[in-house]
Design brief:
Number of helices: 17
Largest sheet: none
Radius of gyration: 21 Å
Distance between the termini: 68 Å
Structural class: mainly alpha
Length: 423
Amino acid sequence: MESPPLVPASPARSLSVTSRLLSVVAAAGPSRMGWLDALRGIAALVVVFDHSSYTFLADFRRELMPQFNTSRYGIMVFFLVSGYIIPASLERRGCVRTFWIGRMFRVYPLWAAVVAVLLALNHLGLLEMRDFGQQSAATVAVAHATMLQELLGTPNLLLVLWTLSYEMAFYLLVVALFTVRLHQRSAAVAVVLAVLAAVSVAAGVVLPASALSGLVGTGPLIAFASISMVVAICCASAGSPLLRGFGGLLGGVPALVLVPFNGTVPLWEGLVILAVMFLGTAVHRAENGQITWRCAAGAAVTVVACAAGSAYWYGDGDHFTRRGWIVAFLLAVLTFGAGLAWRRRCVPRMLTGLGTISYSVYLVHPVLLAVIDGTIGRRRQDSPAREVAFLAVLLPLCLLTHRYVEVPGQTWGRRLARRAQSP
């Protein structure tokens, strides 16, 4: 028997209504850099397509992926945008304490809501959670609470959460550089990380996934990382310059070790991810006159060359998979460059609105897909109409989570940050 449609009536009409709502969100939101929001929106849609195509467009996906890795394209755009804006946020505040308050209330409320919904749906039998092997519930919970679970040998509750581990590692590194007054060296950091990635491939360095966890044990590593992270954030937020420097290094050094040596992506790709984020920072510095454009361009050429070369020479992937990664990476860099070139032009409100809710889109869509896979099931034949219908359900849902979860969390964060700055 034919399964009922995902949504009634016309998905196209629902998307049209949603686009108007996105324009309203963009107009009502705070003043932001529209081109960055547009890039976030584009990246979010590409990631959604990458994951939803498993369910609705499996045949098309099999044809596309060897030529263009849509997942890597979307996340590399996200990482470039994060690199551009996150260190600038810290330096604009000039206060590590308010930076961490802002980040926590920006990231955790929706994360907590999505995890709670995921657990509830699993309890109701509407989706099946992944197996965590021998790890206890407490260990899994602590690892996820740090948001470093991808780098601590713990499977992600949701696959998309892996990128948040790299974001958190980047936050720790940015704070470390800021507390020891090396934050202006973004271009040099990007180049060093990219070169290390290329050297690791040239030297044939291949590590198993979660290598450190296998060496010292997942439990002890999670305990050490979680305690270190809490102490690091507290010390880096202190008034004493000595404590701030100690806290920065206590958070930054373990993050720098975990990314290449305990991730599930190859060592070279972990280093490339960090290099890409610091490249975004270097671009921001060039735009604001802190470094020359020649310096930023040199860093960009080095990072792109080392990343593409590492992917090409990496031994465990076939030619077409490498090609798909390289094409995606180059297009991500070009997309960011195009956004930067057009940054002073008017950006369509629908795109900026989509960027405003992009975090909701990123975290909510896999939950909705898991429910569909657990109830309706995946399609045997490609169905573009169902892909459109999925978006017609997803985007209004994300408008709601943004309005009632993200916005209140950010508001509370700003209030707490103001109190933290008060004498």
